[in-house]
Specification:
Radius of gyration: 57 Å
Order of helices and strands: HHEEHEHHHHEEEEHEEHEEHHH
Distance between the termini: 137 Å
Strand order of the largest sheet: 7-6-5-4-8
Number of helices: 12
Length: 479
């Protein structure tokens, strides 16, 4: 009776175990398999070898091993034409891997699967074509998503950049007001205003790059700009020198528009000065362009800065003449002439003693705004010469001595001598009187100061020509 009860109880326990325990073991094994599959699916691009044993449904069969390994490797999505075959625990792998790392990783997965005795891996690398655009497509996709991330910040940076560009001119006008009264140089004001505008724009550009996360790009641009600036500086050295010289000339103002200046044997009226060169119109009507660097580094002779100009000329009188009388006569004519200034007063000085003459240097001052120094000098030379002749003061030429070693024999025939005496007497009787009358009339005419005589300055004519002529196209006038 008791044995039958024990047998009945054992049968009931076995039935209960088969009904309840079997599904629990299967579900636990299935859960472990799902966890392992999820871990395999969550592996990053670079997989690590695992020492975990991958289980299969009991009893272990080749089909289960093959299915399990096939499912894990397929889930990784790193293989093409994948084949998995299991024979008595010996696993054969075939296909192609997209990355070299996943060739060995497939061996590790198969080797760690439960029931696997050995693994023969025949997986090879995918042969990439030269025209394969898959890497380029992947890089473009990556850049696209990166651009989408920074797009809002780029928009904000662009708004700030546009605002800086719009406010550059008004802010420059406000900041330039303190400098406009101190410095009236147009070129300096233009350069300062452009420098301020450039600084504001560069600030906006840097702020835009900083907001957009492109600070390294900004550093690279600045570095490249420095190198390029160095190369351009050497290439355009002369242009930079002329520009800097124009700035200094514009600030210092050694001459103005319409001034008569002389630079390196070039004399003329200043017509125009630009950032590169200064244009003169000489007294022959020619345009002369002189680089500003040349002007700044050479002597500038300004004939217009002082309206009073002194002229002089040399006059020789004979040794038998009275020096004081000659000086008095010349001084009297100088003081009487309207074109000669009395303050500063003219001077008549003995300059040197020549071979045949006593040389007098006659100085006079003229207002070159009204009169031409050359014209006044020519007129005064003529008048003083005639005045000295009228008072019998000789002005001989330089003496020349001719030596004849053997002498010059002169033989006069009686007939020739008689005819010469007869002719001389006729000349003395008729021609001398007429010559004296002619000389006196000429002297009187020369001594008269003609009010209509043109002694005006030639500078005004050159200025009028400069206003009427075509200006060379080389930039805006900065004077």
């Amino acid at each position: 009776m008791s044995n039958s009860l024990l047998r009945s109880f054992g049968r009931l326990f076995l039935l209960f175990f088969l009904v309840c325990g079997g599904p629990l073991l299967v579900s636990a094994d299935t859960a472990n398999t799902e966890v392992l599959g999820s871990e395999a699916n969550s592996q990053p691009a670079a997989f690590e070898n695992t020492e975990r044993v991958i289980g299969v449904d009991k009893p272990i069969k080749d089909a289960q091993i093959q299915s399990r390994i096939q499912g894990i490797l397929t889930t990784a999505e790193k293989y093409t034409d994948l084949t998995v075959e299991s024979r008595q625990g010996l696993v054969f792998l075939g296909g192609q891997a997209l990355d070299e790392h996943f060739v060995g990783w497939a061996t590790d997965i198969a080797k760690n699967t439960e029931g696997v005795v050995a693994v023969i891996n025949n997986i090879s690398m995918v042969n990439k074509s030269v025209l394969d655009l898959a890497p380029l497509r992947g890089e473009l996709i990556r850049l696209w998503y990166s651009a989408l991330k920074v797009f809002p910040m780029v928009v904000i940076g662009l708004v700030v950049l546009i605002i800086c560009f719009m406010l550059a001119r008004p802010l420059t006008s406000i900041l330039m007001k303190p400098f406009s009264g101190e410095n009236k140089s147009q070129l300096v004001q233009v350069v300062l205003s452009r420098a301020i505008m450039l600084f504001i724009m560069l600030f906006g550009f840097y702020f835009f790059l900083n907001i957009a996360g492109l600070t390294q790009v900004a550093v690279a641009i600045i570095s490249g700009t420095g190198v390029i600036g160095l190369v351009v500086g050497f290439a355009f050295k002369d242009i930079a020198e002329n520009f800097i010289a124009s700035l200094l000339l514009s600030v210092q103002r050694p001459f103005q528009m319409g001034d008569v200046i002389e630079i390196i044997d070039h004399k003329g009226v200043v017509q125009k000065m630009t950032a590169r060169a200064t244009t003169l119109i000489d007294f022959d009507g020619n345009h002369i362009q002189i680089p500003n660097a040349t002007i700044y580094t050479n002597v500038i002779k300004n004939w217009t800065a002082n309206p009073f100009s002194r002229g002089s000329f040399l006059l020789g009188i004979g040794y038998d003449a009275s020096i004081r009388q000659s000086q008095a006569l010349a001084m009297q004519l100088l003081l009487q002439h309207d074109a000669v200034l009395t303050d500063p007063e003219p001077q008549v000085m003995v300059e040197s003693l020549g071979p045949a003459t006593i040389n007098l240097r006659i100085y006079y001052w003229v207002d070159q705004r009204k009169h031409s120094g050359a014209k006044v000098g020519s007129t005064m030379m003529r008048l003083i010469m005639r005045e000295l002749e009228r008072h019998g003061i000789s002005m001989p030429d330089d003496s020349r001595e001719i030596i004849f070693p053997k002498g010059v024999p002169v033989v006069m025939h009686e007939k020739a001598l008689a005819s010469a005496d007869l002719a001389g007497s006729s000349v003395s009787a008729s021609g001398v009187v007429s010559d004296v009358v002619t000389d006196r009339a000429q002297i009187a005419a020369d001594l008269e100061i003609n009010e209509h005589e043109d002694l005006s300055s030639d500078t005004d004519e050159i200025r009028q020509q400069a206003a009427a002529t075509r200006e060379p196209e080389q930039g805006k006038n900065i004077l």
